[in-house]
Automatic annotation (TrEMBL):
Domain of life: Eukaryota
Pfam families: Ras (PF00071)
InterPro entries membership: P-loop_NTPase (IPR027417), Ras-related_GTPase (IPR051065), Small_GTP-bd (IPR005225), Small_GTPase (IPR001806)
Statement: the UniProt record of this protein carries the keyword GTP-binding: yes
Record NCBIfam families: small_GTP
E.C. code: 3.6.5.2
The reaction(s) this protein catalyses: GTP + H2O = GDP + phosphate + H(+)
Enzyme class: hydrolase
UniProt keyword annotation of Transcription regulation present: no
Protein name: Ras-related and estrogen-regulated growth inhibitor
Keywords: Cytoplasm, GTP-binding, Hydrolase, Nucleotide-binding
Transmembrane segments: none
GO cellular component: cytoplasm
Amino acid sequence: MAKSAEVKLAVFGRAAVGKSAIVVRFLTKRFIWEYDPTLESTYRHQATIDDEAVSMEILDTAGQEDAIQRESHMRWAEGFVLVYDITDRISFEEVISLKNFLDEIKKPKNVTLILVGNKADLDHSRQVTTEEGEKVATEMACAFYECSACTGEGNINEAFYELCREVRRRKMIQGKTRRRSSTTHVKQAINKMLTKISS
């Protein structure tokens, strides 16, 4: 049996936006009301995406980590779920600064991420419009989802699957360029040797 592809994902966002609730909804299809906001957890999850086995490692950050912790989480992960709460504009603005921080740490690589607006069931208290979420996702060049970890509305599964697909696409492209550059080096070395021999 073929070995499953491994993907490391990290979920970032301000405390209390529902990061843990989204992860747990994705993993168990259930909603849990109470979380310790200071805990970070790592989960392993097996899924079949596009007929291929994928092994995910999902880091649910506490949202209260210091800059050093946050940086090491960002270096560890290959794909990112940036979560904000549609009823909390500050959490939305924080997502933008998180993306800038990610770009700093991951450069020159492009960051693979998705943007998720949580708590879509609280539409009556909404502070961030769907259009604003879409606009920022366009600027970040990533997919955008609005969902509710509480009711399960919005496609949380699809959001994680799409992120895995994107991470794997990037890995394949990077693998190809790496292979191409090493064969180019070999060709150049051989050509140099041949030139020396013939001269």
